[in-house]
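Researcher: Dear colleague, please comment on this protein.
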Amino acid sequence: MKKTLSTTALAAIVALGAGSAALAEIRIGASISATGPAAFLGDPEAKTLELLVEELNAAGGIDGENLRLVMYDDGGDPNRARTFATRLIEDDEVVAIIGGTTTGTTMSILAVAEDAEVPFISLAGAIEIIDPVRPYTFKTPHTDRMACQKIFEDIQARGFTRVGMISGTDGFGASMQAQCKQVIGDYGIELVADETYNPTDADMTAQLTKIRNTAGIEAIVNPGFGQGPSIVTRNYKQLAIDLPFYQSHGVASDGFIELAGADAAEGIRLPGTALLVANLLAEDDPQKPVVDAYKTAYESHTNSSVGTFGGYAHDAFLILTEALGRADATDPASIRDEIEATEGLAGTTGIYTFTPEDHLGLDLSAFRMLEIRDGAWTLVD
């Protein structure tokens, strides 16, 4: 008998005591970049998954049976991620995989998961993960295309029409740069300067100077993630550039403000999630209960601030365990079908409704336009 579970994270954990047929153990897998250059993303993701599994099992598991998490640290290496995905499926016999901290590791994992027909929920942002739609692959973060649209929507609302971009050449930055170029014309905005930097670059003043000196430029957009955007932000401040500056959701965390410096980051806008402004959400906001529950649990468990990237793992776990609770069996095909049937599920990132044509399940309303003020996140009116 199928059972629909509650739509908040901790309530879901408590409610998962009934649903699917009893099993000796339900194994789920994860390949996360807990170390390496993407550790600032992967470390909170790994901690989140460990926390939620612990909470779920303490509350009785799924139909009285424990959930076992088999997790590997791929260090951000796509080849290791591919190896671990194969091991999870062939040796560990997991029924689903969460992970792919970066686009590169995600693409490696999904190739293995799709071939084996095992559900996979990615934690990376690039649009090519779910476009075109692949039967067994889903993801929780907004796409880079959506981030471009949200940024240009705000730039348009402010009456600006001439924009410069400075983009990282990493997988995320290059993908978002391409997506921004595809949609910028839809907003009546012209790209008048286009510069790039390598992830290992320690100074981007030359590129920013070229952008600043471009005639008629009115705003700057920085597609990128990792330390690069923090360096760009410091250089932007050092050059005293007096133009609106937009970052991407790839740096939507307190860590970005710390790396860039609150003074340099002052006034920067970016599209982010409700999790970053939990204290500013209206009481009737449908995401508030799940955001508050996750924030409280994570910060109590880790003694560190909650962030967007751990939220991606939270939502993937919520989607998967809700599907397990509804499934008639824990075979991968049944789980896949129930993931795709997810409707109106409030997570920390947005409210998910999947369809056969949409394995992201979010629209632009899931993004909140945020601005950094006095070293903290604020909502743009």
Summary: The chain has two domains: 9-143+284-365, 144-278+367-379.
